[in-house]
Amino acid sequence: MLAELKYWLSDFLPYSIESWAGLLGYYNLKLWPFSLLLIPLCVAVFWSSSQQPLNKKRIALWLLAICWLWAGVIFIRLNFVTLNWAASYVFFLFILQALFLFCYPLTTRFKRSLNYQKNSVIQYGAMVLALIAFPCIQFFSGYQIHQLGWFALTPDSTALVTLAVLGRMRLLTLSLILIPLLWGILVLAHAWPLGDLAGMFLLPLSVLFLLLHKLNFR
Amino acid sequence: MTISRRQLLQYSSGIALQSLALPLFASETPALKTIPSTGEKIPSMGMGTWITFNVGDNTELRDPRCQVLSRFFELGGRMVDSSPMYGSAEDVLGYCEEKKSAPDNYFRTTKVWTSSDSEGRTQIDNSYQLWKTNQFGLYQVHNLVNWKNHLPYLQELKAQGKIRYVGISTSHGRRHGDLANIMETQEIDFVQLTYNLEDREVEEKLLPLAADRGIGVVVNRPFRRGGLFDRLEGTPLPDWAQSIGCKNMAQIMLKFIISHPAVTCAIPATSQLAHLEENMAAQHGPMPDPQLRTEMINWFNQT
After folding, report:
1. Is B214 inside a domain boundary?
2. End-to-end alpha carbon distance in chain A
3. Which of B30, B22, B19 shows the shortest CA–CA distance to B282?
4. How far is CA A178 from the centre of its chain?
5. Could you give the CA distance from residue B146 to residue B155 in angstroms, rounded to a whole number?
6. CB A85 within 8 A of CB A99
7. How does DSSP assign chain A, residue by residue?
8. CA neighbours within 13 Å on the CB side: how many for A125?
9. 3-state secondary structure of B23
10. pLDDT means per 10 residues in chain B (303 residues)?
């Protein structure tokens, strides 16, 4: 009988999908209308990532670093922590990723890798797709409009767009993609017991974007 | 906004049911259990808050929880159990208390859950603030974490009148050997453990030991987090259900638990008013005798 008594993944999640979606909605409403600033931010990230001068490319990564800081500190540490105490540990991953994104443009490896960059329709398309893919999946899986997770505001979309931008800049180095992929695994482990269909798509989508860029550069 | 005929019927039947239900519960005395260490009587149906009350700061989700809490007390409930491990649940309970959804003297039950002594004291102070109270009915060491240091501190608080009872909790059938050892050697008022139609290991040692040592028993995971409903899906109510006033599977599961002589209180968690009312009804009416309890186990094992 004792053997039947086990901890399941769901036993570590102290909240329901209703609470999770409610948190997203509450967070988005608190930020509105300042979240409209995301539009120029997205334009700035995409534009700077496609420019040739090195300084402008650095700006793309530094903007991404700010997005990771925001998602980590404001969403995870200050909001998600109300549902899940473990968030107070997870947010360090976001700080670390922000640090990587900030420091990497200062390395010589950054300069070298950019020599091989090429622009293509697939690259641009992938970035736009990454921007809308996750909120769209959330919407069609039952989330309400105000509960959708957007790039820079929430971690899931931020991880996906980061991979797309890094792929676009041909910066798929392990130090930069490890944490976004790890986040995809954590989200899967959280989404599966919650029955959160959108969350289950994050890791496959992340891998898909990486493959897309790999194929496009051959 | 227009109201359809169906909505009108649903609404009016809801009111009718409510007006019927309240006097029904109010006129019947629920099954009261005795807390062994003091002889105090307490209703055998409490309420847990794992997952269901962890809704963050969102008032759209908090307010319905306050309604559930309010209804719980209307139906004769007293013990509400939570933990710092349950995210915002303690904060939501404090919010509901501010909104007058709870009486002043209800049986507040929480836990300390950290391996650090100093953090444990901070956590305890924090729980008093979150619940907005000066006294807890029961304070437990959660999952036996650092019990050797937390328990003496909880006893100190009990001596100061800030806690009425102290206890140790576990769940999922873990660390039963250690729990038995604590029950045999420490002065505690309560244990909290998992017991349901499927997880019955505690019948062998822990429940008899609790009865022997005069320790109250709070039962968590009465439905195995809904797993028992999944297992019994499609199974018709057995013939004997009516003889103990059970109208659904939840009541069968709960009556099985609270009819054990060593059990003081079960703490099913819910965020649904309808489920709450089903749960609370289980503490009314006849309880299964030992013979029927055996039949319940056989029936469950065959499903």
Report:
1. yes
2. 56
3. B30
4. 12
5. 14
6. no
7. -GGG----GGGG--S-HHHHHHHHHHHHHHHTTGGGGHHHHHHHHHHHHT-SSHHHHHHHHHHHHHHHHIIIIIIIITTGGGT-TTHHHHHHHHHHHHHHHHHGGGSHHHHHHHTT----HHHHHHHHHHHHHHHHHHHHTT--GGGPPPTTTSHHHHHHHHHHHHHHTT---HHHHHHHHHHHHHHHHHHHHHT-HHHHHHHHHHHHHHHHHHHHT-
8. 6
9. helix
10. 40 41 51 94 96 95 97 96 96 94 92 95 97 96 95 97 97 91 97 96 96 97 92 94 95 97 97 97 95 96 91
Task: Enumerate the residues of chain A whose CB falls inside 8 A of the CB of residue B89.
Answer: 14
Contact (CB, 8 A) for B39 and B26: no
Q: What is the DSSP letter of B259?
A: T
Please tell me the distance from the alpha carbon of residue B263 to that of residue B213, in angstroms, as a whole number: 13
Confirm if A70 and A51 have CB atoms less than 8 A apart.
Answer: no
Instruction: Give the structural domain span for B174.
Output: 42-235+262-271
Residue A85 contacts B where some CB pair is shorter than 8 Å: yes
Of A38-42, A136-140, A202-206, minimum mean pLDDT range:
A38-42
Reduce the DSSP state of residue B167 to 3 states and report it: strand
- Above 80 in pLDDT, residue A161? yes
Token pair for A36: 């409209």
To which H or E segment does residue B110 belong? Answer: strand B107-112
For B207, phi then psi, to 5°, come to -70, -45
Q: Which of B42, B49, B46 is nearest to B66 (CA)?
A: B49
CATH number of the domain bearing residue B141: 3.20.20.100
CA-based end-to-end distance of chain B: 47
How far apart, in Å, are the Cα atoms of B239 and each of A31, B234, B244, B285? 56, 15, 10, 16
pLDDT at B157: 98
Say how many domains are in chain B.
Answer: 1
Tell me if B127 is assigned to some domain: yes
Residue B29 belongs to a domain: no
- Interface probe, candidates B54, B86, B175, B225, chain A, greatest A C-beta count within 10 A: B54
What's the DSSP call for residue B203?
A: G
pLDDT of B239? 94
Q: Which of A1, A9, A13 to mutate to test the interface with B (most CBs of B within 10 A)?
A: A1
Q: Show the CA angle centred on residue A65, arms to residues A59 and A69, nearest 5°.
A: 145
The C-alpha of A23 sits at a distance from chain B's nearest C-alpha, in angstroms, of 7
For tokens 């399941």, the residue is A8
Q: Tell whether B17 is covered by a domain.
A: no
A33 min Cα distance to partner chain B (Å): 18
> A19, B56: Cβ pair inside 8 Å?
yes
What are the respective helix, strand and coil percentages of chain B, to the nearest 5? 50, 15, 35
Tokens coding B39: 């002889």
Place of tokens 């006849």: B286
